[in-house]
Design a protein that fits this description.
This protein has 4 helices and 10 strands; from the N terminus they run H-H-H-E-E-E-E-H-E-E-E-E-E-E. The protein has about 180 residues and is an alpha+beta fold. The chain has one domain. The strands form 2 sheets. An 8-stranded mixed beta sheet has the order 2-1-3-4-5-8-10-9. It has a two-stranded antiparallel ribbon with strand order 6-7.
């Protein structure tokens, strides 16, 4: 699962991240990235999770969860995902179809840290200028079969759970769990 990077970035940034993979991590930097990755979920999950940094597995976990220090390259938005979420991220990165046939969970307990996204378009070229730009504090993300989303709002201003990317194969429920940091 080396290719988890969402195509929100330019070619230059992607090439920089690829070249970074080929260099050795300074142990202090790697320790900080591992700590940041694991901060995305409760310790009961992250302590035994696989950790991937810059596309490279640096810790082999044993509980089926994968933690990343960055959702997008170097954005500092850590996340911990189950296998369904990792499958969806792979599909999204590669612009492949994805259809949820079971529930998938992702933790982002540090929130999006001001990076934000378009609530309708995972590929928006400039999400901060999107009409539906949204920032979410600490949250969970839940993938469910699309039929289970009926009746849920896609309005993030309600303060409760809302649907993100509803007209895409990558649709999921955002569940805020605390105010923005």
């Amino acid at each position: 699962m080396a290719n988890y990077l969402v195509p929100k970035i330019g070619v230059a940034a992607l090439l920089c991240s690829v070249s970074f993979i080929n260099t050795a991590f300074a142990s202090d930097d790697l320790d900080a990235l591992i700590t940041r990755a694991k901060s995305a979920a409760p310790a009961a999950i992250s302590d035994n999770a696989t950790v991937i940094v810059k596309g490279k597995e640096v810790i082999k976990g044993n509980n089926g969860w994968t933690c990343l220090p960055d959702t997008f390259p170097d954005d500092g938005m850590p996340m911990c995902n189950d296998a369904v979420w990792m499958e969806m991220l792979d599909a999204m990165v590669n612009k492949k179809d994805f259809k949820a046939d079971k529930i998938g969970i992702s933790y982002m307990l540090q929130g999006d840290l001001g990076a934000g996204v378009s609530n309708s378009d995972p590929y928006h070229p400039n999400p901060k200028k999107a009409d539906d730009y949204v920032e979410t504090g600490p949250h969970l993300m839940i993938i469910v079969p699309k039929a289970m989303l009926e009746g849920l709002t896609d309005d993030p201003s309600t303060g409760g759970p809302y649907v993100m990317w509803k007209d895409t194969p990558y649709v999921h429920i955002m569940v805020p769990v605390a105010d923005k940091k």
